[in-house]
Design brief:
203 residues, single chain, 4 helices, eight-stranded mixed sheet, alpha+beta, Nucleoside Triphosphate Pyrophosphohydrolase, three-stranded antiparallel sheet, globular
């Protein structure tokens, strides 16, 4: 009987992310950005944290996202950017984060951001301190729910006089869509591919 794939067995998941061909987009004129996908807690039932962005923000205001933002001159790379932004937005200490790997790059059509998601394992229980300006609060969800909830909602969007519905995830009351929804979709695809290689099904 094959050993079941544990979605966040640290070494195994790091090997999965590092052993695949990651989609790295050319940022072009987009704003280079990075977000941190923080995973933590009991390895048998880990959790993942999102943030609720403040309603007053001109771009992506009120949306559920991962902590992150634009690269600054002092950032060595996307990892440094993700860690700095997570510290600024929710008080996460960079030294407590073990980098696991990178997801595929995502771009936003409307606001022109080129985003690299950085997955990190938190070595100690987080003490969230939302900055109150960009982030109102932290939303903690079960990683299993995030991995195994299919798109189950249509979110209505209006842009430049056009209106359309986009696939979204409603997970434990949180509505995840847009660029963050595509990151969740990518994470799910990676897990499904690994499960397929091992010949097992989801729990």
């Amino acid at each position: 009987m094959p050993t079941p794939f544990v979605p966040f067995h640290l070494e195994g998941f790091s090997a999965v992310l590092g052993g695949r061909e990651r989609v790295a987009l050319d940022p072009g004129n987009d704003h280079r950005s990075a977000v941190l996908v923080p995973v933590y807690g009991d390895v048998r039932a880990p959790r993942v944290a999102f943030v609720k962005r403040s309603e007053h923000l001109r771009r992506h205001g009120g949306q559920i996202a991962f902590p992150g933002g634009r690269l600054e001159l002092g950032d060595e790379d996307v990892v440094a950017c993700a860690l700095r932004e997570a510290h600024e937005e929710v008080g996460l200490e960079p030294r407590t984060v073990q980098i696991v790997g990178l997801l595929d790059d995502v771009s936003t059509v409307v606001t022109g951001y080129h985003i690299t998601p950085v997955v990190g394992w938190l070595r100690s229980p987080p003490r969230w301190v939302p900055d109150g300006d960009e982030v109102t609060h932290v939303i903690e969800l079960s990683l299993a729910d995030v991995l195994y909830t299919p798109p189950n909602h249509l979110h209505h969007v209006e842009w430049k006089g056009r209106s359309f519905d986009v696939p979204a995830y409603r997970i434990d009351g949180a509505l995840v869509w847009g660029a963050t929804g595509r990151m969740v979709e990518n994470l799910q695809e990676i897990v499904r591919a690994q499960e397929g290689r091992q010949g097992i099904s989801k729990p």
